[in-house]
TrEMBL record:
It comes from the Bacteria. This is PilZ domain-containing protein.
Length: 114
């Protein structure tokens, strides 16, 4: 029996690129977000316990973040790395991004129309 996917799969790594704010060079892709931090997927390891000025480029706006790397380890995919960052005073735009992502990827209970 073939069952078709009811929810479209989205590859976030194709959309949520993270840049160095000063050089405008990509340093990786957004892997996860929280109110006070983020996870980054990258092709190179990130220096741990260092400060970073990051930029997220969203449709119609950019979000600049000041962050400190807390950890970095090799991903299960060879030559890929996962890194965790704590954010210093995340701006309101970042909180809106988190809210939007939570809403977009949450499963709402199905409500049949009467």
């Amino acid at each position: 029996m073939i069952i078709e996917r009811g929810i479209q799969r989205h590859q976030l790594t194709f959309f949520l690129n993270v840049f160095n704010r000063f050089t405008d060079k990509s340093i990786g892709y957004l892997g996860g977000v929280s109110e006070g931090g983020l996870m980054l997927f990258s092709h190179l390891p990130v220096l741990v316990d260092a400060n970073f000025d990051l930029r997220l480029k969203l449709p119609g706006e950019t979000v600049d973040l000041k962050a400190r790397s807390l950890w970095c380890h090799e991903d299960v995919t060879p030559n890929h790395y996962d890194s965790g960052f704590v954010l210093y005073e995340p701006p309101g735009e970042y909180r809106l991004l988190i809210r939007s992502l939570r809403q977009y990827f949450s499963f709402q209970p199905f409500q049949a129309s009467a």
